[in-house]
Amino acid sequence: MASEILHVSDLRISRGRTEILRGIDWRVRRGEHWVILGPNGCGKTSLLKALTGYLSPTSGEVALLGRKYGEADWRELRLEIGLVTSALQASIPPAEPALETVVSGRYAQLDLWAHPTRREKAAAGRLLQWIGLSYLAAREWVHLSQGERQRVLIARALMARPKLLILDEPCAGLDPVAREEFLWFVEQVARRRGGPALVLVTHHAEEIMPAFTHALLLRAGAVCASGPKGAVVTSRRLGAAFGARIAVRAERGRFRALVARRRT
Question: Are 48 and 13 in contact (CB under 8 A)?
Fold first, then answer.
């Protein structure tokens, strides 16, 4: 379908006797923003690796913009997916200026060795201005705060104009105030005209901003629920996925999840 950005069909990943993912069916269409929820070990990281071509499926298919992994050039397809994850941070040179970090997204390359063109510098400068950090263009990576680094990584991901932007637990390491500020920035990214579809990976229902439209809930390598967020982010379904009593409340377009204490 022309409106379909991502199509995952009967995806299964196993290594040896361990089945990591099984029977994953999932579609992301234009205009949709998804959140992936689930407990530790449910398969979120493996699913992301499959989407970006770094983990080969045992069976099933992953297609991006109608092009299937394994049949199309994975290096080209990766340029259509922006990825923001803390795992990238260790590979960025401490002395690299923020502007060059953003430019490196144009090549999907860390530790940029190419000399940025004037046009690339200008485009990176506009993105830094849009995220409110133009004054940090010359500041070295090592001197950026965690929140600033996450914003720079989003600008870096947008440099290649991806159709899909994956945010892998981007609030990890942020204090409560920085987290809330960053989440409202993500809301701005989601509502940007002509921007990519977003996929946010998180453990916390509180991080689902109003602009997100759908949710995929995983447990033990399989899909518990998938669809519009209001039908997925519920007390019953989160409780089943996390194996606990959870009370979910919707407040002003956000969610709040309260976990009941286990009796000992």
Answer: no
